From TrEMBL:
Transmembrane segments: 31-55, 88-107, 113-133, 154-178, 184-201, 262-287
Pfam families found in the cross-reference section: SCFA_trans
Identification of the protein by name: Putative TIGR00366 family protein
One GO CC term on file: plasma membrane
InterPro entries registered for this protein in UniProt: SCFA_transpt_AtoE
Species this protein is from: Brevibacterium mcbrellneri ATCC 49030
Keywords of this entry: Membrane, Transmembrane, Transmembrane helix
Length: 289
């Protein structure tokens, strides 16, 4: 867990969007609550034990001396994912939809250039000129290795959250979980819903702005502390962040590693944290936290 969790800090900020319904919630009920502290401690110990079990034996460790060597380039895509990454068809589809979106923007707004549309135009042109997603990603990595993953992926994440929020899908997910929950299970189902939404919207602030009001509205007739909902959404967000750990992309770029080199560990950590966190949020109503 972290001192910089978006939702807990937001609901403790005067004037936040849900202040009329839940007031200001101090961090003693969120970040420093018994639930969050115990999830942090037990989660750390559980993940530490899991990684210790997965660690290679001393005779299996290959030491790195000096600079990290560049992996040999493989000109031939082997796996299905690599073939998609190098596909001109996929590239063309992305560019066509990008041009369509740009055209619709100018039809609706006239020739009104602003920062977002300029960034999007450069993104679409760059993808189109490089011929395949893999080539474009490699050029960005060569140019800004420490931040390439974030620079390239976050425009697409922004598009996904726009689609999910605009279509009402996030609201539907929240309402469905609310409809099958009781006071005893609602914190757990809120946690599960947050994990699902975060797979598509890995942005804590954006996720809370869309999912938070739905969950808070659902507990208006329940005897549930709003802080519990804030905690459940925050931990759910962090749990599936391990499935797509964008937060380590700068470090991976500097270390010249790919996500596939650490993904097994991330998946293990996510499963361990999922079991531990789910258990705690199931016990929260029983313990009265």
């Amino acid at each position: 867990m972290s001192l910089a969790l978006t939702a807990p800090l937001l609901v403790n900020t005067p004037g936040h969007p849900l202040e009329e319904k839940i007031g200001l919630i101090p961090v003693t009920e969120t970040i420093f609550s018994p639930t969050m502290l115990l999830v942090s401690i037990v989660g750390f110990l559980g993940i530490y034990a899991g990684f210790a079990f997965m660690a290679p034996k001393p005779n299996e460790i290959i030491p790195l001396n000096g600079d990290i060597a560049e992996p040999p380039a493989d000109p031939k895509p082997q796996t299905a994912a690599e073939k998609i990454d190098n596909s001109i068809i996929v590239n063309t589809i992305v560019v066509v939809f990008g041009i369509l979106a740009i055209s619709l923007y100018f039809i609706a707004n006239g020739f009104n250039l602003e920062l977002n549309i300029m960034n999007f135009i450069f993104l679409v042109v760059g993808i189109g000129l490089h011929g395949s997603p893999a080539k474009y990603a490699k050029c960005i990595t060569d140019g800004i290795p420490a931040a390439s993953g974030i620079v390239l992926q976050f425009p697409f994440y922004a598009g996904i959250i726009g689609i999910m929020a605009g279509s009402g899908l996030i609201v539907m997910i929240g309402q469905w979980f609310a409809s099958i929950s009781t006071e005893a299970t609602f914190p757990l189902f809120t946690y599960i819903a947050a994990m699902i939404v975060n797979i598509f919207v890995p942005s804590a602030g954006g996720q809370w702005q869309v999912q938070g009001p739905v969950m808070i509205e659902a507990i208006q007739n329940m005897n549930i502390n709003p802080a519990t909902i804030v905690n459940a959404v925050s931990v759910g967000d962090m749990t599936t962040n391990l499935l797509q750990p964008f937060f380590v992309l700068p470090t991976l770029g500097l270390a010249k590693l790919g996500l596939k080199d650490i993904w097994g560990y991330c998946m293990t950590a996510m499963l361990i944290l999922m079991v531990i966190s789910g258990t705690f949020f199931l016990l929260v109503p029983v313990l009265g936290w």
